[in-house]
Specification:
Layout: E1 17-26, E2 29-39, E3 44-49, H1 55-62, E4 70-75, E5 78-80, H2 85-90, E6 93-96, H3 108-115, H4 125-137, H5 154-167, E7 172-176, H6 184-199, E8 204-208, H7 212-218, E9 221-226, E10 229-235, H8 241-249, E11 279-287, E12 293-302, E13 306-311, H9 318-326, E14 333-338, E15 341-342, H10 347-353, E16 355-358, H11 362-365, H12 373-377, E17 388-389, E18 392-393, H13 395-409, H14 425-436, E19 443-447, H15 455-470, E20 474-478, H16 482-488, E21 491-496, E22 499-505, H17 511-518
Parallel strand pairs: 3-8, 3-9, 6-7, 7-8, 13-20, 13-21, 16-19, 19-20
Antiparallel strand pairs: 1-2, 1-4, 4-5, 9-10, 11-12, 11-14, 14-15, 17-18, 21-22
Helix pairs in contact: 3-5, 13-14
Length: 522
């Protein structure tokens, strides 16, 4: 008999969570297959797995956003039917999402009150502010109650998301990739405080992450999911990144693949000293979506055979920089040259100067979802020989080349005629890679090229980016993943508030020095 949720005051302090044979299906697809897991009260329990392994499905069932078809969820040893998020909240379960859920027009104080779900018609703000100040005094975070999210840095927004849940005094706190927008210092600060809350017996923590460093430093135990099944349970003290990577990807995984999802790369040819830049950006400025400056007098150079990594916390102008370079955003000032020639990002410029791009969210930014795989692969050169002749498009040639690329890049699709929107994220990216990396490349602009992809896709895409460099191409790699930049780049620059604020050779880069500049500390 499933225990009902009663209206009397709930228990306090960290709870014990058990899932028994939890199963969730979406049509014929089994997203979670008889997953059993034990999370001890007052512990930090990490949940690892490749993209699509079932992590989000599992926590959404625990948080009441989805209902499993089979299995049980036990809270403190009692089976509970968590029909919706309201029931989860009554049980003391709170969740902090990967993407911000703040009300942008409201103050910090108003966002905290809104999190409670029951806001009175009339608010005694003097009493409430005193209550909120008392609450903040019990936490290690300090935020201005009158500030609005638009005035907060990314790290402060993440802290506010965490404070919203702590204000409700959760017994179980679920964190979904909580450090994806934080500098290394901010990540350590947030996770250190979360661990302290758990160790103090205030709550139990279940954290989804893809960073082995965070698991080893802050978690007590770890569960690994693979293809919807729980394949590995361990105390953190009894495991290591190599074993975790092997559990995530299967027994054939190598120790090198355990480095934060970044592939190992072969020794690289040194960049030619004194070589003329392949890509020159001089005093570039570009407006943001609201018309305010997003890129401000930014200058950089990338030489042939070099990967220049651009680091920065999300929201500091990286997206606008890439869009201005590839022709998706107007430039308000500055010049861009490729191979010493003016570059305005037209289709003709791209072909003549051999410029290619791997944009973030390729299905939205580099594809037409309703067109076939073959048609999307032909977007760059559909009107050029051998895909066209005498003003006629040669569709059979499109399809033949697509079949060749599908085989070469291991793209999983029903065929070259299938809509590209029917492919998984990793396979869309492989299809875009095939198109963008074909032929001789002078400059490649890549923006978060592996975001949200599984380890196998990450390793393959990283290897192909390095191949461009080895063939003498210049690569501008913009990424919010510092580990990716450290693994692939020759030089790293840090972008903050639309400007380049720091530069260092990647080989001698210090993670915390980079983090300090990313956070505006210098």
């Amino acid at each position: 008999m499933i225990a009902p949720v009663t209206p009397h005051p709930r228990a306090q302090g960290a709870l014990a969570l058990d899932t028994l044979d939890l199963t969730k299906r979406f049509g014929d697809f089994t997203a979670m297959d008889h997953v059993s897991m034990q999370v001890a009260p007052g512990s930090v329990h990490a949940l690892l797995g490749e993209n699509g392994a079932g992590k989000s499905t599992l926590v959404k069932c625990v948080a009441g956003f989805q209902r499993p078809e089979e299995g049980s969820i036990l809270i403190d040893g009692r089976e509970q039917a968590i029909a919706n998020p309201v029931v989860a909240r009554q049980l003391g379960i709170g969740m902090v999402y990967q993407h911000f859920t703040l009300a942008p027009g409201m103050t910090v104080a108003e966002n905290l009150l809104l999190a409670g779900g029951q806001v009175p018609t009339l608010i005694d703000w003097k009493a409430k502010r005193a209550e909120l100040q008392d609450f903040l005094a019990t936490t290690p975070f300090r935020l201005d109650l009158d500030a609005r999210p638009s005035q907060l840095a990314a790290g402060e927004k993440q802290k506010l998301e965490l404070l919203k849940q702590l204000y409700l005094k959760p017994r179980l706190l679920i964190l979904d990739e909580p450090t994806s927008v934080l500098t290394p210092q901010e990540a350590d600060e947030v996770l250190g405080h979360v661990r302290a809350f758990a160790q103090g017996g205030h709550c139990t923590v279940l954290i989804i992450t893809h960073k082995f460093r965070e698991v080893m430093a802050y978690a007590d135990a770890v569960t690994v999911l693979r293809r919807g099944r729980a394949v590995h349970h361990a105390a953190v003290r009894d495991t290591d990144p190599t074993r975790l990577a092997q559990a995530m990807m299967g027994a054939g995984a190598t120790p090198d693949e355990a480095s934060e999802g970044a592939s190992a790369v072969a020794p690289r040819t040194p960049v030619a000293a004194g070589a003329a830049p392949a890509l020159e950006v001089e005093s570039l400025s570009a407006p943001g979506d609201r018309g305010t400056p997003a890129v401000q007098s930014l200058s950089l150079q990338v030489r042939p055979g070099e990967i220049l990594g651009v680091a920065g916390v999300s929201g500091n102008g990286q997206r606008e920089l890439v869009e201005a370079l590839v022709g998706q955003r107007a430039r308000s000032a500055g010049r861009v040259r490729v191979g010493g020639q003016p570059y305005r990002a037209s289709r003709g410029d791209n072909r003549r100067l051999r410029v290619r791009s791997l944009p973030e969210e390729p299905l939205r930014n580099a594809c037409v979802a309703g067109l076939s795989v073959a048609e999307n692969m032909a977007l760059r050169d559909f009107d050029q020989p051998p895909l066209a002749a005498g003003g006629l498009l040669r569709f059979a040639r499109w399809r033949a080349r697509a079949r060749q690329w599908i085989a070469e890049y291991g793209i999983k699709t029903r065929g070259e005629r299938a809509p590209i929107g029917s492919l998984s994220g990793g396979n869309v990216q492989r299809a875009v890679l095939a198109r963008e990396l074909a032929g001789d490349i002078q400059v490649l602009i890549a923006a978060n090229p592996v975001f949200g992809l599984d380890f196998a896709a990450v390793a393959e895409i990283h290897a192909r980016i390095v191949q461009v460099r080895e063939r003498g191409g210049a690569v501008l790699l913009v990424s919010e993943d510092l580990d990716e930049l450290l693994a692939l780049s020759d030089r790293i620059v840090v972008m903050s508030e639309g400007r380049i604020v720091y530069e260092t050779p990647a080989a001698s880069a210090d993670r915390h020095v980079l983090g300090a500049h990313m956070g505006g500390g210098h």
